[in-house]
Amino acid sequence: MNKILFADSAGPAFQKAYNQTHFALAALVPATLVSPQDGQIAKVADVGLAAALTVHNHVALNYVISDYVPRGIQVPVRAGVVGLSLLTAVGLTKLALGGPGIGGAVKELWKKKQSA
Q1: Which residue has the higher pLDDT, 115 or 60?
Q2: Domains of the chain, with CATH numbers?
Q3: Quick one: what percent of the chain has pLDDT higher than 70?
Q4: How is the chain classified by DSSP, letter by letter?
Q5: How far, in Å, CA of 81 to CA of 42, rounded?
Q6: pTM of this structure
Q7: How many CB atoms lie within 10 A of CB 98?
Q8: Integer CA distances (angstroms), 19 to 34, 55, 79, 107, in order
Q9: Where in the cell is it found (predicted)?
Q10: What is the tens place of the pLDDT at every residue in 1-51?
């Protein structure tokens, strides 16, 4: 649990996972936006995107905490980030599997923005 709470300094495995999310996001974002919304590629890309976004954001927010949050309140703020990351994972996974998908939701928002 300590490694998850202090994900920015948890060691080389966490750093490697964080670095790999850059490549995953670079591949999955276009895949989910270009593929048909109800296709198998979009579902796989959306589930991968949900995981990659969660890991990427969790580690990155821990870097922000290390740099900008006063030491005395870092642990409670990090606990909040763990909760936020769990909510993000659940929400994005539900959207990917039970809704229009992450790419589908972005496409819907984009259409509404252009028609406004």
Answers
A1: 60
A2: 2-115 (1.20.1300.10)
A3: 99
A4: -HHHHTGGGS-HHHHHHHHHHHHHHHHHHHHHHHS-TTSHHHHHHHHHHHHHHHHHHHHHHHHHHHHHS-GGGHHHHHHHHHHHHHHHHHHHHHHHHHSS-HHHHHHHHHHHHHH-
A5: 28
A6: 0.89
A7: 8
A8: 24, 10, 23, 27
A9: Mitochondrion inner membrane
A10: 788 989 888 899 989 999 999 999 999 999 999 999 888 999 999 999 999
Question: Which tens digit of pLDDT belongs to each residue from 70-87?
Answer: 999 999 999 999 999 999
Whether the Cβ atoms of residue 89 and residue 49 lie closer than 8 Å to each other: no
For Cα atoms 8, 48, 42, give the angle at the middle one, nearest 5 degrees: 150
- Count of CA atoms in the C-beta half-sphere (13 A) of 32: 26
Side chain identity at residue 50, one-letter code: A
Task: Determine the residue type at 61.
Answer: L
58 has binding-site annotation: no
Please count the other Cβ atoms lying within 10 Å of the Cβ belonging to residue 6: 17
